[in-house]
């Protein structure tokens, strides 16, 4: 098979292959996983993905004294902002704060119009100007890419210059949309799934991440 026949892969996309990520992802996908366990796995996966996504965070040197002597060490040089997309992104925040306790948290509310599948902004708690060096957008699902692209648009108008997108599951359509609109934004996820269905849900996916976290899905 020639290289031109291979499916396109966005250079800004990183799909984790860590065994712990793959193990937890299977639990997350399982329709039998109850909301409590689902929230726990969202948190654990978010920590692992955040750990990988922050591998290139900038540092500055410092000296510390051990009980025996002074030593050259490092401290985080980037001011980091966490931007969960309401509501599903809320389940990813605590894990990221465990990694980066000094991070600021700003909320964006976007919902998908079920008729047009386009995002509608209904809440924005960003301050007047950018106060961080690196923004991490947190959203479990990257489906059509509309909400992610809209969030990135908002952050760039705000003044953010370095932005990363952290998702649990992404679709090829969503990755393509974000990469086309914002090629400078890197995407970190646990899985790149097959496609979207006619309603804009990821296949095989895991259903509605917000409903499964908060127990608000339709009951037959």
Description:
The protein has 220 residues and is of the alpha/beta class. The chain has a single domain (10-214), classed as Rossmann fold. The protein is built from 6 helices and 15 strands. It has helices at residues 19-29, 35-53, 93-99, 146-158, 172-181, 209-214; strands at 13-15, 59-65, 70-76, 80-86, 104-105, 108-112, 119-124, 134-138, 141-142, 163-166, 169-170, 186-189, 191-192, 195-196, 202-203. The strands form 4 sheets. Strands 1, 4, 5, 6, 7, 8, 10 and 12 form an 8-stranded mixed sheet that branches. Strand 2 (59-65) and strand 3 form a beta hairpin. It is globular. It starts with 12 loop residues before the first strand and ends in a 6-residue tail after the last helix. The model is unreliable at 1-8 (pLDDT under 50).
Share in helix: 25-40%
- Strand content is 25-35%
Distance between the termini: 46 Å
Question: Mean pLDDT score, rounded?
Answer: 87
Tell me the CATH topology. Answer: Rossmann fold
Q: Looking at the structure, what is the overall shape?
A: globular
N-to-C order of helices and strands: EHHEEEHEEEEEHEEHEEEEH
CATH secondary-structure class: Alpha Beta
Query: What are the segments in which pLDDT stays under 50 over at least 5 consecutive residues?
Result: 1-8
What key attributes describe this structure?
6 helices; alpha/beta; Rossmann fold; globular; 220 residues; three-stranded parallel sheet; disordered N terminus; eight-stranded mixed sheet
